[in-house]
């Protein structure tokens, strides 16, 4: 998509608005599958939590992908999108046995990440095959909040607990048909990732009924010009060879699985916001937009970088701006950033807005969540309407209270 395409979306659908380029999503998916072309049986499960609009899920279904889900609601979204239950993996954390049993009843692949629930589930449902999530104790990821495979992480069954895990499997008679890990997001060093895969291979060899090994994801995408990213082609080449080697020693060909989210949709997304006010102080020029961290929380939550372009004046002289939102507390998208000269009413385009933007949006300050648009074949398609006050009030219950004079005086 070019600047003119984005402007046309803002003009047609208003602002703020999320825009996703379907062709960019398809391109990333094909890049990933090509990188692992040497793998005999490759499974891609798109991580629903990154961007869960049902039209996006249907797009991945058309591409042949399955889904990676973390809640019963995401599973239901996947089923509503027409995805075959057998192509959905459910990897929750800290949920109740009741939720896991409910999802198991939907026919999807269960992935369990703690010994307590594994033992309870195995004792009650020994005939339901499960995957187990292993914590390899490898620190990877671009931020402490998204590094999930280290020793202090709440995720996964510690590699030091494998003997206990094996006893549970033996005592319950349950079948483990997959092993899984996820070290974290924004992985740059493929050497660290490959080191973690060796731990997973060693663990996998202890189970005799495997159908797949799931290596998670977390591949880093570029956020700015010249930014580094995961060399997916090199990783694909090395890991495919090692995986085929493992299958040979294991005695059968099993599936190599991944669950990418950000890698597939981040760069395909743009977030468009209109400049409400230019405000100059003694040291800073603020560009205040008609949005805030209620719509794009990643800069405030993770310190993440999103490129910002003034698509209303792309060839203007660069000036330094701090781009801020309208939320009633510190609400900063970018500090002292060079952007082509901004005037009130201009449209700013935030890049890398396809992943963890709408899905983490809220109604903070009672603001509406924006519309979502899918750009395909040179046309915009509305895939979620902008919220209204009816949406804010929908589930609220208006209770009539009578306050007595004594309470008022007190």
Features:
nine-stranded mixed beta sheet, eight-stranded parallel beta barrel, Lyase, Ornithine Decarboxylase, Chain A, domain 1, 410 residues, globular, 31% helix, 18 strands
Please summarize what this structure is.
By secondary structure, this protein is of the alpha/beta class. It is 31% helix and 23% strand. It has 13 helices and 18 strands.
Q: How much β-strand is present in the residues?
A: 15-25%
Distance between the termini: 62 Å
Please compute the radius of gyration using only Cα atoms: 24 Å
**Average of the residue pLDDT scores:** 93
**Poorly predicted runs of 5 or more residues:** 140-150
Q: What's the story with the biggest beta sheet?
A: 9 strands, mixed
Q: What would you call the shape?
A: globular
What would CATH call the architecture of the largest domain? Alpha-Beta Barrel
Under CATH at level 1, the class of the largest domain stands as Alpha Beta
CATH superfamily descriptor of the largest domain: Alanine racemase
Number of helices: 13
Determine the CATH topology of the largest domain. Answer: TIM Barrel
* Class from helix and strand fractions: alpha/beta
Q: How helical, in percent, are the residues? A: 25-40%
Number of discrete domains = 2
* DSSP E strands, number: 18
